[in-house]
Amino acid sequence: MSYCRQEGKDQIVFLSKEDYDKPPIGPVPDENEDDDEPGLIMENGDINWNCPCLGGMATGPCGNEFREAFSCFHYSQDEQKGSDCYEQFKGMQECMQKFPSLYDNESGADMDAIAEEEAKARSQTTVDDGEKSGDNSVNEADDKSDAETKS
């Protein structure tokens, strides 16, 4: 027995084997039919700057800076993709800071603050690793309390 049900925004269709095997009624879209919009990356690997997914970033007041940074990242050959694009992204960020009403930074964090947080996290990881390997006093105290509880 085939049936449909709605769950929130989704429509779930259950088909019986018999219904599944029937030929479709109405037009079936051609899989090879090209969409009007090619998407962000075109078949030749170029960036589609007219893609609505960019939300106008490529054409706004910082459009040139955005295109430079995004192109650098897209075509980056570095082991860590985009690691060679710091200057381009910094230029884009500086431009965006000149237009706060257009490019609202909800988190309030800038690249310098993010870099500082990453450095702190790396140094904290190093400290934590040293504590785990060198300081067994916490584990020894836990072992003693476990032994006292058992006796």
Distance from first to last alpha carbon: 64 Å
Would you report the number of β strands? Answer: 2
How does the helix and strand content classify structurally? Answer: mainly alpha
In terms of per-residue confidence, which ranges show pLDDT below 50 for 5 or more consecutive residues? 131-142
Helix-strand string: EEHHHHH
- CA-based gyration radius: 28 Å
Shape: elongated
The DSSP helix count reads: 5
Biased composition (Acidic residues): 107-116
Subcellular location: Mitochondrion
Domain CHCH: 62-98
Biased composition (Basic and acidic residues): 141-151
Write up what this structure looks like:
This is CHCH domain-containing protein. It is found in: Mitochondrion. The chain is mainly α. The protein has a domain at 58-115: Helix Hairpins, CATH 1.10.287.2900. Helix content is 45%, strand content 7%. It has 5 helices and 2 strands. The chain has a two-stranded antiparallel ribbon with strand order 1-2. Helix 2 (63-75) packs antiparallel against helix 3. It is elongated and about 60 Å long. The chain starts with a strand and ends with a helix.
